[in-house]
């Protein structure tokens, strides 16, 4: 089998970095498939399906004819005849280019567009996209770190439609393409000159060379002390404005998140927001809505957790029985955005109806048996892996591919350690205004405790904590005001170090016992416990019996 480990070994990370950079520049997804049809590398959603067989007829034709192929209309193209995935294909355009190793074919590099806007852009610049795929193929063929690298990169730079330049660690220009040169009117010589680089916002920069300044919108990619900037002139009228609270911070993870929010706000495809408890997925959904052209239209929120299936169906699609006409969330959000949170709790029958709406954009009219077209963007949220639910047959595979093509993973505060100072300052300022207070000082020990605390409840926990501190202090936040559970954390860690190591079975028994005491022992409570523990009901009952937990419970009464 032609596996990834057998090929690129130590170059694997570099190849993934190259593919990711090109995918972001071109705003598409890219995958590399072997001669045997195995997906070796991929960006975006397809990165979750590595080392699996890819059944794309176009790739078979590319390898047979040894020439580039384009599928402009997937599902309708002759190249898609016989494809097993045709009925639920989500691609809008597909390009395939053969790759060689030592003049022997060994695979295909594919470019995948998932939206109509991506399709139109690729078709408009088809020559440039094909040449770029060939460039990536050459980079792989040259194994990235050979003498051919510079020549290949220059080929890409000079032919890229957007402006691009490379600077070294001191900001000195090493390379620049024709499009970039054209933006700095009056300058003839660039290499060796210093670039003054000022980041104004997430993707908005001021670039200055020898006194000539240009405001641009673009992206940066850094590797081995060098930075590549790919950009276009910034149009003030097209600027996307982002909400503050949840997007503040200078960490790399937040830079990436701001970039993703800007990208998805410009399209109308469904989005999957995945995040742990407390990251406030609803707030991020609201940010995406208000950053898009749909701002000013309704933003409707529905949570699937602990809602009976019939009631949930009524909330989303409305009631259309005689004598009972109720507008559903899809129709109430017309022209705007519907956020369906905790979609992992949605039953399969409702999933089928949602998939039908996403495919056709139509629902039953409230006034008759006929259907009406409703233009509502759908965002879904969950803290579960929908792919895992698909594999467990709890989530429709077709619906997964419909909503998860654009997935944004919301970072926990644990991943945003370097942002905690800014977050605390922002929240103190926010609640000082709310309570009309002037906070003059923050005791260092108190601030250090908050910055280093492990915020398992994420944004909601830190916001509630700061609101409490500001509301209860006079003008200074001191150590004695900090909640006891935060102050006791260090002492708790010391206790943990001295605790004996317990057998896993003992720990598991105690967790189940505690859950039964807290939640209850009836059937419905056990269903909730099983879900929280991530096990099935049969497994829960078996463990209760094996650990003789019923006896423990009787002794407690």
Characterize the structure shown.
The chain has 557 residues and is an alpha+beta fold. It has 5 domains: 4-152, GAF domain (Beta-Lactamase, 2-Layer Sandwich); 161-238, Beta-Lactamase; 245-409, P-loop containing nucleotide triphosphate hydrolases (Rossmann fold, 3-Layer(aba) Sandwich), CATH 3.40.50.300; 414-492, Helicase, Ruva Protein, domain 3 (Orthogonal Bundle); 504-556. 41% of the residues lie in helices and 20% in strands. The protein contains 22 helices and 22 strands. The strands form 6 sheets. Strands 7-6-11-10-9-8 form a 6-stranded antiparallel beta sheet. A 5-stranded antiparallel beta sheet has the order 2-1-5-4-3, sandwiched between helices. Helix 14 (420-434) packs across helix 16 (458-472) and helix 19 packs across helix 20. It is globular, with a radius of gyration of 27 Å. The chain starts with 11 loop residues before the first helix and ends with a helix. Mean pLDDT is 80; it is low at 1-10, 144-152 and 235-243.
């Amino acid at each position: 089998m032609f596996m990834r480990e057998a090929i690129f070994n130590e170059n694997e990370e570099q190849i993934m970095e190259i593919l990711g950079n090109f995918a972001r520049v071109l705003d598409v997804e890219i995958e590399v498939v072997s001669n045997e049809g195995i997906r070796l590398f991929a960006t975006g959603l397809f990165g979750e399906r590595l080392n699996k067989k890819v059944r794309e007829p176009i790739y078979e034709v590319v390898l047979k004819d040894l020439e580039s192929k384009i599928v402009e209309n997937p599902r309708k193209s002759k190249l898609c005849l016989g494809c097993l995935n045709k009925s639920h294909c989500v691609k809008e355009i597909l390009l395939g280019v053969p790759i060689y190793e030592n003049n022997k074919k060994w695979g295909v590099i594919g470019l995948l567009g998932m939206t109509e806007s991506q399709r139109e852009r690729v078709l408009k610049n088809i020559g440039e996209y094909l040449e770029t795929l060939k460039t990536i193929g050459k980079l792989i063929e040259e194994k990235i770190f050979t003498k051919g690298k510079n020549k290949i990169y220059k080929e890409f730079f000079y032919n890229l439609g957007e402006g691009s330049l490379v600077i070294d660690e001191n900001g000195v220009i090493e390379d620049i393409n024709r499009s970039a040169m054209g933006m700095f009117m009056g300058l003839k010589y660039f290499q060796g000159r210093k670039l003054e680089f000022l980041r104004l916002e997430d993707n908005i920069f001021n670039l200055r060379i020898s006194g000539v300044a240009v405001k641009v919108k673009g992206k940066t990619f850094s590797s081995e002390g060098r930075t590549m900037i790919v950009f276009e002139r910034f149009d003030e009228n097209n600027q996307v404005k982002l909400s503050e609270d949840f997007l503040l911070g200078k960490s790399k993870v937040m830079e990436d998140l701001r970039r993703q929010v800007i990208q998805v706000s410009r399209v109308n495809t469904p989005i999957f927001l995945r995040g742990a408890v407390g990251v406030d997925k609803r707030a991020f959904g609201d940010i995406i809505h208000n950053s898009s052209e749909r701002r000013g239209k309704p933003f409707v929120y529905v949570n699937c957790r602990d809602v009976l299936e019939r009631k949930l169906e009524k909330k989303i699609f409305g009631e259309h029985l005689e004598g009972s006409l109720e507008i559903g969330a899809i129709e109430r959000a017309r022209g705007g955005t519907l956020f369906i949170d905790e979609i992992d709790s949605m039953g399969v029958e409702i999933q089928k109806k949602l998939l039908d709406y996403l495919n056709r954009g139509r629902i039953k009219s409230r006034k008759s048996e006929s259907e009406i077209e409703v233009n509502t963007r759908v965002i879904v949220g969950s803290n579960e892996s929908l792919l895992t639910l698909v594999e467990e047959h709890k989530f429709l595979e077709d619906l997964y591919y419909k909503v998860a093509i654009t997935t944004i993973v919301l970072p926990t505060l644990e991943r945003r350690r370097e942002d905690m100072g800014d977050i605390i300052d922002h929240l103190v300022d926010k609640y000082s205004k709310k309570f009309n207070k002037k906070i003059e000082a923050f005791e260092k020990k108190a601030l250090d405790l908050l910055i280093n605390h492990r915020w398992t409840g994420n944004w909601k926990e830190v916001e509630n904590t700061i609101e409490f501190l500001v509301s209860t202090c006079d003008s200074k936040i001191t150590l004695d005001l900090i909640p006891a559970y935060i102050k006791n954390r260090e002492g708790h860690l010391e206790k943990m170090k001295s605790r004996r190591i317990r057998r896993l079975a003992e720990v598991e028994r105690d967790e189940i016992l505690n859950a039964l005491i807290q939640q209850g022992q009836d059937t419905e409570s056990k269903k909730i416990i099983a879900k929280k523990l991530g096990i099935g009901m049969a497994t829960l009952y078996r463990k209760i019996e094996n650990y003789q937990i019923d006896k423990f419970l009787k002794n407690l009464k």
